[in-house]
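2024-03-11 09:14:02 DEBUG pipeline.ingest accepted 1 chain
2024-03-11 09:14:02 DEBUG pipeline.ingest length=76
2024-03-11 09:14:03 DEBUG pipeline.predict start
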Amino acid sequence: MEKEICTINIANNSLGDNYTFYENQTIKRIYDSNNKHLDITEWLTNDQISSQSKDKLVKNCPEELKEKIMLILNYP
């Protein structure tokens, strides 16, 4: 497995929504769709993430990693 860069949480309610970024530019999302469907895992590419989610990810990203995460997300 590739080296992990960081995990960013963008949940806005009691349901989780975490994105983990890896050095090979892969992105793993673990989220809860509702109280009965928890910890759903999916592997994403940057083009599968909405602009709104990208905004939240960059906003919640640690400052020292922001440039690296923006490159992975292909964020303007």
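2024-03-11 09:14:41 DEBUG pipeline.report The longest strand covers residues 4-9.
2024-03-11 09:14:41 DEBUG pipeline.predict end
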